[in-house]
Amino acid sequence: MSLTVINHPLVQHKLALVRDERTGSKDFRELVTEITMLMAFEAMRDLELEDVEITTPVQGATVKMLSGKKLALVGILRAGLIMVDGILKLVPAAKVGHIGTYRDPVTKQPVRYYAKLPSDISERRVFIVDPMLATGGSAVDAIAELKKAGASNIKLLNIIAAPEGVARVQQAHPDVEIVVAALDSHLNDHAYIVPGLGDAGDRIYGTK
Fold it and tell me: Which of 115, 160, 179, 181 is the most exposed place for a label (fewest CB within 10 A)?
């Protein structure tokens, strides 16, 4: 059961800014994108490389380039879309899938309303992205959907997580590595992460 918390100073600085209620939607979106890109460096640390021969303006050289399985990014709608955009800046050839869920306000359980994945998802390394890992319901559901489609190499990237959500994912899918920028205190009575940053989707799209 693997959990990685990224404590890099740049990540923590930008995380403090996105937590601040005074940060507007434009800055919030830019910061989330930047945090995601920084997180991707850690999450993709184990990507395979191969030697490739090229010619520089000076001479021939043996350099390292990505090899092995290609990548897929799966955003949990709607807030995960901004994280997909950030990682695509680094790996523009990655294919993108979407899984739509919403949390039932009464039961707090995820309700899936949409799923569209690359047809060759079983052949790719998959990174699921969603800014918040609260109850863990949406993440557990998304991972189950990916496994049903044949995916076996899966990582989950969240900016902020609650211990309850981490535990739920680890119990349901112990083979999935979780990478977060912060592990917060707990969930409140409304299943919001404390101290958290509020509703990520509302703050990204200005719908609060």
Answer: 115
